């Protein structure tokens, strides 16, 4: 009885350790190298914050970062708002074509971004939207929306419809019902959906690459362009900053919302 | 407070009629029990009075005002749901105060009114708890306080006691009735539990397949069921079928049963006898006086329940039921041949 679980325990720990190593070792090395004065990854590390000072002077990379942050936050706001509203509508109302609409929400998640990006590029050109930051924003919102709807709808499945009825019987308007009863319950789902939307936009390379114009682009596209020209450890520096910021954001969110569970 | 009138209400789900031409007056300040098996339309009717559903035909009025155009939130109702539907993200206090807060009642008045409601349902000291920290009975009280704190015109109860266990349920029946009397609010109570309907209601309406089968005060319906369904659904009944001749029903085996009222002659009809009205005598015992019906039967099963004994009897291959008080006399044995006696007055003709 003891031997088997113990063996499993050891193997399990090794497994978890390996997963963590594969996930975090490359990131850890990147962070280390951002503080190495040598641009050729020479060891031992010659500690320096030089790449960060260089980064401060790299206006192109900083502009791209701001573009990425702005687009990701705007995408998050729009996609979360629209997606939550859509989930509520799908939950509350019956209407013609609802099943079809729900079924059609899933394929975009599975369609490769390369194909979606090409399609968007062609379509945006045809209807006169063209390329640029506005086109990237539009594309990102479209990509993020299904994620928000899927996550929020999953949370809504656990919501008891009598709660809305009870609130209405007590005199609450539709808006009061939503704000005071429904939203508090689905909040963890909305937050999770927002994180998905942010990640889809902030990580987005393919669609952004298709829709950006040479001067105006997002960070992933800019990093890709910079690497093609020749790698500079400034990339390590900007990546480190982003890793720190996004991990802080994730940990804070995880601290306040247990996903799938109650607050 | 207000009376509620339902007039000629029908509701169809596809081709299925959930309610058909139902008319009921729910008297002002009364406690009305809507009784029926599942699928009888009782919950549909309650939901239409609340405003969660709308009739396809007919009209509903609360306090004399037609409510067809009034959405739920403007009907001034209080409702207690089967599973209580307490808001899980709010404390007990906030749950009860919800109806006041959405109406913009001032903070101090809110606190006073919540406190009064909490006292009424005897829940003092639990205001800060969350619903999941309460027992079933406490949740029930919170749901009730929340429903009446807004001083609604009518209180709607959708099987509110069905989630409680038996002993708690009996206690809550008395409580609910006390609170209803104290507040004096028109109350409509949906249940499939006939005992609950009998003990709590001033009036009972029995629904069956979307139609109102019978209506009246509990004792009146119990003593004068109009149909076989009403007789068997509200309480227990032994049903005898035969051919009518004036006051008499001729059973298939030739026995004559005298009913207390005449039935339309020549037709096939039935009569009902409540099990507690039947007296069991050993066949050798003294013959009962006139104005009695009697039948020979054999005891097939004796069920001891402490204060009473239920006998299942075999008569002509049919199972009859008789209740006897546990008065200390020697009970009859299973297999014993006995004679059943009951008064003509207890023989209820059914249409």
Automatic annotation (TrEMBL), chain A:
GO terms (BP aspect): transmembrane transport
Domain ABC transmembrane type-1: 65-253
Primary location group: membrane
Keyword set includes Membrane: yes
Bilayer disposition of the protein: Multi-pass membrane protein
Key words of the record: Cell membrane, Membrane, Transmembrane, Transmembrane helix, Transport
Keyword Cell membrane: yes
Source species, domain of life: Bacteria
Family: Belongs to the binding-protein-dependent transport system permease family. CysTW subfamily.
PANTHER family, per database record: PUTRESCINE TRANSPORT SYSTEM PERMEASE PROTEIN POTI
Protein name per UniProt: ABC transporter permease
TrEMBL record, chain B:
Domain of life: Bacteria
SUPFAM superfamilies named in the record: MOP-like (SSF50331), P-loop containing nucleoside triphosphate hydrolases (SSF52540)
E.C. code: 7.6.2.11
GO CC annotations on file: ATP-binding cassette (ABC) transporter complex
Database matches in Gene3D superfamilies: 2.40.50.100, P-loop containing nucleotide triphosphate hydrolases
Keywords from the UniProt entry: ATP-binding, Cell membrane, Membrane, Nucleotide-binding, Translocase, Transport
Provenance organism: Pelagibius litoralis
Record-given protein name: Spermidine/putrescine import ATP-binding protein PotA
Quaternary state and interactors: The complex is composed of two ATP-binding proteins (PotA), two transmembrane proteins (PotB and PotC) and a solute-binding protein (PotD).
Pfam families referenced in this protein's UniProt entry, alphabetically: ABC_tran (PF00005), TOBE_2 (PF08402)
Function per UniProt: Part of the ABC transporter complex PotABCD involved in spermidine/putrescine import. Responsible for energy coupling to the transport system.
GO molecular function annotations of the record: ABC-type polyamine transporter activity; ATP binding; ATP hydrolysis activity
InterPro entries reported in the protein's UniProt record: AAA+_ATPase, ABC_SmlMolc_Importer, ABC_transporter-like_ATP-bd, ABC_transporter-like_CS, Mo/tungstate-bd_C_term_dom, P-loop_NTPase, PotA-like, Transp-assoc_OB_typ2
SMART domains noted in UniProt: AAA (SM00382)
Catalytic activity: ATP + H2O + polyamine-[polyamine-binding protein]Side 1 = ADP + phosphate + polyamineSide 2 + [polyamine-binding protein]Side 1
One BP annotation, GO: quaternary ammonium group transport
Family designation: Belongs to the ABC transporter superfamily. Spermidine/putrescine importer (TC 3.A.1.11.1) family.
Domain ABC transporter: 4-234
